[in-house]
Amino acid sequence: GAGVSQSPSNKVTEKGKDVELRCDPISGHTALYWYRQSLGQGLEFLIYFQGNSAPDKSGLPSDRFSAERTGGSVSTLTIQRTQQEDSAVYLCASSSSVAGGNQPQHFGDGTRLSIL
Amino acid sequence: AQKITQTQPGMFVQEKEAVTLDCTYDTSDPSYGLFWYKQPSSGEMIFLIYQGSYDQQNATEGRYSLNFQKARKSANLVISASQLGDSAMYFCAMRGLGRNTPLVFGKGTRLSVIA
């Protein structure tokens, strides 16, 4: 497809389980971002990949969260030992590498994560 | 650090009327970009319009325009001729220019268009 693809669209799991969320960015986009949106809130930055550079992990809320990006394309966000406060919509976005910072980020439809 | 403030949690507008959604920002970056996104109830984030801090003219995209007042650090979104399909959450966001750094978002404004 032409857009950012995320899977699964919905995930329900029990507290304490690990979850993996997947993001497939737009082809050719070298920048990839993960955000979290809690109910009724704005978007909170989690982690950011730019090309082959080391990722910016400054937004990760705890060491239970990690992400990787293989081959400069698909990214996986992993949450270990999930807690109820992890319940949120996790959004992935990508943008092109044109310098200047005026490139919009294109978002996927998100993964709605519910921790029971 | 960057901060976006959207002071209107909810707004109502009559169909076919214009509406302004407020956004103020704070940043220490000398150059920056401002973005508006629309999030319908289905959840996807849709890019609407962009304004660079050094752009001389206010950005326009169809029925969307950005009222950029740099000295006041405001970047209000104006939607003309509102349509029922404009009902959604609207987020203002920014980032520094020069790199594809993450966006900083406001908390959003929920716009409801009334027939």
Task: Describe the secondary structure blueprint for this structure.
The complex is a heterodimer of chains A (116) and B (115).
Chain A (H helix, E strand, L loop, with lengths): L4 E3 L2 E4 L5 E6 L6 E7 L5 E8 L14 E5 L5 E5 L8 E8 L10 E2 L3 E5 L1
Parallel strand pairs in A: 2-10
Antiparallel strand pairs in A: 1-3, 3-7, 4-5, 4-8, 6-7, 8-9, 8-10
Chain B lengths: L2 E3 L4 E5 L4 E3 L2 E3 L5 E8 L6 E7 L7 E2 L2 E6 L4 E6 L8 E9 L7 E2 L3 E6 L1
Parallel strand pairs in B: 2-12
Antiparallel strand pairs in B: 1-4, 3-9, 5-6, 5-10, 7-8, 8-9, 10-11, 10-12
Structure description:
The complex is a heterodimer of chains A (about 120) and B (about 120). Chain A has no helices and 10 strands. By secondary structure, chain A is mainly β. Helices cover about 0% and strands about 45% of the residues of chain A. In chain A, strands 2, 4, 5, 8, 9 and 10 form a 6-stranded mixed beta sheet that branches. In chain A, strands 1-3-7-6 form a 4-stranded antiparallel beta sheet, with no helix packed on it. Chain B has about 120 residues and is mainly β. Chain B has no helices and 12 strands. In chain B, strand 7 (about 60) and strand 8 (about 65-70) form a beta hairpin. Chains A and B meet through strand 4, strand 5, strand 8 and strand 9 of A and strand 5, strand 6, strand 10 and strand 11 of B.
Shape of chain A: globular
Rg over CA atoms of chain B: 14 Å
* Number of H- or I-type helical stretches of chain B: 0
Strand content of chain B: over 45%
What is the number of beta strands of chain A? 10
Q: Secondary-structure element order of chain A, as H and E?
A: EEEEEEEEEE
Give the biggest beta sheet of chain B: 6 strands, mixed
Q: Tally the helices of chain A: what do you get? A: 0
Which structural class matches the secondary elements of chain B? mainly beta
**Broad structural category of chain A:** mainly beta
